[in-house]
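Protein record
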Amino acid sequence: MKTSFKFCTAMLLSALALTACNKQTAQAGSSDKQAQTMAQPVQNDQAVVDALQASLKASNINDLTVKTALPTAMPEVYWVSFDNAPAMFTDKTGSYLIQGQIIKIGDEKPADITADIIPTIAKSTLSQIPTDEMIISPAKGETKAVIYVFTDPTCHYCQKLHGELEQINAGGVEVRYLAWPRNEATVPMTQHIWCAADRLTTLGEAKHGKTPPPASCDDPVRKHMSIGLQLGVSGTPAVFTESGQQIGGYIPADELIQLAIQNR
């Protein structure tokens, strides 16, 4: 029986594996109306948190710590977040965990029931990260918008986006990088970058294939990885606007500038 519990835990934590950098998000094609809609604050239901935590403990799943349980548009279904694991759904009793999307139908267009929740969480979470933890490439002239980009130095599409950084900054968009190594092998490299004296230059060099020199500090790399998991990041680059909207993976600079300003 213990084997099955271990298997269950492994299945629940399998989403911790960081996926290939070229995974694109479906949200990039969202309508302007949906992208510009600001969600209302949602209230954590501590009773659901406690019930789900008790269910996990009863099933000998001790690797998941429940943080929040937020009500969704689906009756008695909650969006739950964890420490160091992707968010999932649960029922009001905390007896079930559901991975994936739940789509509401019957209206003019199908809608993800977390569409109003995730941007609210992301906006609050990202705005609270100290700027000195990020690698920032400021806008040229007037700052018209800010984007947050979870990045991996070895990711092809991250490299492609970084190659357009000058154009993005010239369009009035400030880029704030957060660390998102796609696997354990790239964690040390990422830590060296974040501990470098000139982090932006070192990041750029790493994205051109140059190995960063060893450096150590109280780096935020694993903190950023945990934040990314909580926000549903599953590939790099993952681009968020100031309003908390995840507008895509790699997007050409002209389109990225437009979306960033529209959804600030």
